[in-house]
Amino acid sequence: MTSIDPAPDASSLAFLSGGGELGALMRDLDWASTALGPAEGWTANLKITAGIVLRSPVAMVLLWGEKGIMIYNDAFAAFSRDRHPMMLGMKVRQAWPEVAGFNDNVLKVGLAGGTLSYRDQELTLNLDGASGAVWLNLDYAPVLDENGRSVGVLAVVVETTGAVQAVRQGRAETERLQQLFAQAPGFMAMLGGPEHVFELVNPAYEQLIGHRKVEGQPVRAALPEIVNQGFIDILDRVFESGQAYTGKAIKIGLQRTVDGPVEERFVDFVYQPIIGGDGKVSGIFVEGYDVTDRVHGEAHLRLLMNELNHRLKNTLATVRAIARQTLQGSGPMEVAREALSARISALSRAQNVLTSRNWQGSDIRDVVASAIAPHSDSADTRFSITGPSVSLSPRAALSLSLALHELATNAAKYGALSTNAGRVEITWSLAGNPEPRLDLEWQEHGGPPVALPSSKGFGTKLIERGLANELDAVVSLEYPPAGFVLKMSAGMASLQERSEASSE
């Protein structure tokens, strides 16, 4: 009669009950084929520890013995993806070959009675057929037998991949925003709390305020010079009301250098309230542009328009006077027409010189060169020009240009420029102290003999009256036989003073 082995006592596997899917798998697994042997014969501390692992809601894995035989729970199975269920009862080195060295160290330390703890530990694992980085919080502790000897290692595994990636993504986004913040063409600042504490400023804001270190300080302390300029009152209203404020071309005084003067700047800006998660204002975002150059440019444009209007009226008056006098005293109409055209052309050339300098005046050398241009040659053999750089006001430049044109025209008709050998010297110098004067001389050489004219034509009157009346100059006309000479002496104050339109 064949003997029948009695069925195993179900109570000997009671530690596997309540262990979820893994408890059922462990009951069905042929443990006799593993290094642990039949589950019924396991030591008490192995059964107790396995029961704790199976019932834990947190991913846990038990590495038993020197080979690290794996017993784990449902939570660890979910983490292991396609590695489950094949690795149940497997040596840890075989189950996770890509991190064999890491687990070898875990077993070495744990079986020696030591503990290990890692936070956001990065490991490269093969899961679901793909290799990739995962981040884990890992805690390892030894499992002791009744004699206090370590016989296994218990691991608690918490995957933090999502959290780490979220933090890194947030950090990358923050860095990207900081780069945009730093590279923004306009100035920006973040102010926190009701005291408007600087939390962050970009380089453009630092440049605006003179590169002062203001982060961590309230606006009132960081920029004391603006306390009485109304800006803090505006910040207070924005913080209290939650309503943004926009300013256009607002003047602000900033002490941009230590112990330096308060500099006037102009800014376009927006104070935008920052609303926190509770719906309340937590700070203010400041954004704007330094528009000082634009404001000054617009002011200069208005000045130029006023100057243009003033100059246009003066020019028309000059043209009318030239036309009237020319037509009255130039004989036949054709002669008068040519004289009028030449004088208006001279006036136009003088206007061009001034326009090239934005009507800020011009250098006397440019005025002289423009006036004599129709009568000079490419080699500059007809004229000798000598003198220092002297800035003339627009009024002085126009008057001198017209006078020089008349001198050159007369020289071409009757004087040195009417012969091939004739030439003209134009010299000027500065003299006088404390009230400097400009002394200018026009001297002709190599022309026909000169005699004192019996009467003064319009050109001569234009020279004398234009220089004397417009420039408050002392003018003398000399007629030695060797060549005509004009001498002019005028105070620099009258030569450089601005017109009323320019000084507004």
UniProtKB/TrEMBL annotation:
It catalyses: ATP + protein L-histidine = ADP + protein N-phospho-L-histidine. GO terms for molecular function: ATP binding; protein histidine kinase activity. Its EC number is 2.7.13.3. Pfam families: HWE_HK, PAS_4. InterPro entries: HATPase_C_sf, PAS-like_dom_sf, PAS_4, Sig_transdc_His_kinase_HWE. Residues 307-389 form the Signal transduction histidine kinase HWE region domain. It is an enzyme of class 2 (transferase). Keywords: ATP-binding, Kinase, Nucleotide-binding, Phosphoprotein, Plasmid, Transferase. Gene3D superfamilies: Histidine kinase-like ATPase, C-terminal domain, PAS domain. PANTHER family: HISTIDINE KINASE (PTHR41523:SF7), TWO-COMPONENT SYSTEM SENSOR PROTEIN (PTHR41523). This is histidine kinase. It comes from Paracoccus liaowanqingii.
